[in-house]
Amino acid sequence: MKIKPFGDKAILLQFEDRIHPDIHSLVIHFLQVLKNKNIAGVQYYVPAFASITIGFDPQLWHFDDLAERISRFWSKIYSTPNVEKEGAMLRIPVCFDDQYALDRAELCAEIDMGWSDVIDLFTSTTYTVYMIGFLPGFPYLGLLPPKLACARKGVPRKKVPAQSVGLAGRQAGIYPSNSPGGWQIIGSTPVKPFDPMRSEYFLFESGVKVTFQQISTSSYKDITRQLEDSPDGVEAFYV
After folding, report:
1. What is the pLDDT of residues 147-180, one digit of tens each?
2. Please, what CATH class does the domain formed by 89-237 belong to?
3. Given this structure, which CATH class describes domain 2-77?
4. How far is residue 106's CA from residue 154's CA, in Å, rounded to a whole number?
5. Does residue 26 surpass a pLDDT of 60?
6. For the chain, which residues make up each domain, given as ranges?
7. Which helix (H) or strand (E) holds 142?
8. pLDDT value of residue 47
9. How far apart are CA 7 and CA 19, in angstroms?
10. What single DSSP character describes residue 163?
11. In the structure, what pLDDT confidence band is assigned to residue 94 with cuts at 50, 70 and 90?
12. Closest Cα partner for 166 from 236, 230, 228, 107?
């Protein structure tokens, strides 16, 4: 692990420079170690694919002193780097019908796979939330099976509908709001990644495991109505 200054009020912990489930498990494990230490003067933690950004109060900490303390914590767990985070599992319903699968034809042509096979492979995989970014609540999920790896669209859409499920590279993501975007859209979920009407605004957090379940258009509409009436009903999707 490398420890670097990140401006004058933050530290960057860089574990490696690649995306891999074992590396991210280490990120999440060490993040929990640091949180449990409850270090005075540390203001926030931002986990990502292979790094953690730590914000601190410069009146209480100098970079060298905080880096030294973090290094001591790191040395105590370095011998067990592949620790899985035992946390939440979400099963997200997705409708893959034509009105939601905006890039069905383009994706199938690119990866040379039938649509039913795409759905089967996508829904049979368990994903990890590597980080939240781009938009509030947008989860970067990985890793896609190699057969589903695909390029971003050559010309991004000016408007991707909220709750669209997209693929890019070996990642999947869910758009929390209407937004420009270049990911290949394969479906939509009735579950909002971000909803200020819920007691917990954000559905996803780094380290959570996610699976997807195919639903029909009628089920999509039913779930949408249920969550409009009871936004905290998303608890039903934790398994």
Report:
1. 999 999 999 999 999 999 999 999 999 999 999 9
2. mainly beta
3. alpha beta
4. 11
5. yes
6. 2-77, 89-237
7. strand 139-142
8. 93
9. 24
10. T
11. very high
12. 107
